[in-house]
Amino acid sequence: MEIPDIIIDKLAGAESVAVLTGAGISAESGIKTFRDQDGLWAKFSPEELASMDGFLANPKRVWEWYNLRMEVVKNAEPNPGHFALAELEKMYSDFSLATQNIDRLHQRAGSKKVLELHGNLVENFCNKCHAPFHGETALPNGQVPLCPECGGNIRPAVVWFGENLPAEALLEAETIARRCDVYLTIGTSGAVYPAAGLPLIAARRKAFVVEINPKETEVTPYFSAHISGASGVVLPELVKKIKQARK
Fold it and tell me: What is the pLDDT of residues 39-50, one digit of tens each?
């Protein structure tokens, strides 16, 4: 794969690098997005399965959906793109990886500092008292999980439609977007805000912003460069060339 020399030069000489990953990198590990659902779940809208209104209307259905997603994620493996980003993290003293994905494949690949902008599928908490929940969520006896502290419904620790992103993670992601030398936006549609605004913040601050995606997006014109390709192919090659350039 041909990667323009200017991209390698910018990354080889950078002191601060920021990354945003979206559904594309997870799709390469076989994890479908809402847009790709089929079968039984295709008839439901995202709002019915991933919103507070949908949860309150039918918590059992929502939990059936998330238990299915948890099983898919459990059986998925990090791909070469995930491992390349973990390797990239070791190459910079100032590195930040923000993700819109909730599967924790980055952590499983070895990434140490991950800002989860949309939460994750591993943790759960009480919708009423917000206490963490570590019990069974697989609907024993068909009953939704309830909080042992207050009896409230347990929910996944994901950010649903209509909810705010975690303030601390978003603030940190915005802070590094304002100071980084190079910003990589990987496998994102550029349409889900406020996360999609992070590389635009970097672009306005004159950082060198590289979009890695099989197709161009509506925000491609605002960036310094675009690499067409799967992250699992592009990122390992990128890491290899940066190491060569630094020798």
Answer: 556 778 888 999
> Which residues, listed in sequence order, are joined to residue 64 by a DSSP beta bridge?
none
CATH of 1-30+78-118+165-247, one of 1.25.40.20, 2.60.40.1930, 3.30.390.30, 3.40.50.1220: 3.40.50.1220
* The overall pTM is greater than 0.85: yes
* Residues in CB range of 182: below 8 A, 6 or more apart: 10, 11, 14, 16, 17, 18, 207, 208, 209, 210
Q: Which of 106, 118, 130, 226 is catalytic?
A: 118
Question: What's the one-letter identity of residue 226?
Answer: H
Q: Is 118 a residue of the active site?
A: yes
What are the tens digits of pLDDT across the range 118-173? Answer: 999 999 999 999 999 999 998 877 889 999 999 999 999 999 999 999 999 999 99
- The token pair at 98 is 């923000």
